[in-house]
Amino acid sequence: DFDGAIREFRAAISLHPNWIWGHIKLAMALSRSGDHDEALKEVEIAEAALHDSGTPLARCWLGRVYAAAGREEPARVILAQLESSPERYVDPLTRAYVHDGLGEREEALDCIDQAFRERSPLCSNLKALSLLLPELQLAESDRFRNILRKMGLPSV
């Protein structure tokens, strides 16, 4: 229910305009609903507040919005930042989100597989990933189903 999510995030942001995650999540909901222009406006607010920093999870969501909006260059910049962050661990699933936005299914699946091998804590939401990223067609991927099986989760 992206329309409902958009309404609720807008209401929350009206109460706390500096809530960076609210802007990020609103941008994701707008992007998923197809309103890329408004999503990019929210990304700009979040980017200004983050000052090119922020958690890898925040960065990956912004990268995914850029990619989904056809803004490949800033998406690739964020992807490069996620791939070369020597000062902290970057969960491979964060890169999967950006690869997904760029339409790079095999690269996204490589990241998902790496996250599983590294026992990423984000893997606890792995089954929901097939709902969040339906264009990857994860439910149809033998690789994805195999990872779920190894984790002891039922197939999607």
Description:
It is a single chain. The chain is mainly alpha-helical. 69% of the residues lie in helices and 0% in strands. It contains nine helices and no strands. It has helices at 2-15, 20-32, 36-50, 56-68, 72-83, 92-101, 105-117, 126-132, 142-151. Helix 1 (2-15) runs antiparallel to helix 2, helix 2 runs antiparallel to helix 3 and helix 6 (92-101) runs antiparallel to helix 7 (105-117). It is globular, with a radius of gyration of 15 Å. The two termini are 20 Å apart.
Quick overview:
This protein has 156 residues and is mainly α. The protein has helices spanning 2-15, 20-32, 36-50, 56-68, 72-83, 92-101, 105-117, 126-132, 142-151.
Strand content: under 5%
H-E order: HHHHHHHHH
Figure out the total of helices.
9
Helix fraction, binned, reads 55-70%
The largest sheet is: none
> Averaged pLDDT, please?
84
Could you name the ranges where pLDDT drops below 50 across 5 or more consecutive residues? none
Rg, rounded, reads: 15 Å
Task: Tell me, briefly, the overall form.
Answer: globular
- The class by helix and strand makeup works out as mainly alpha
Number of strands: 0
Distance between the termini: 20 Å
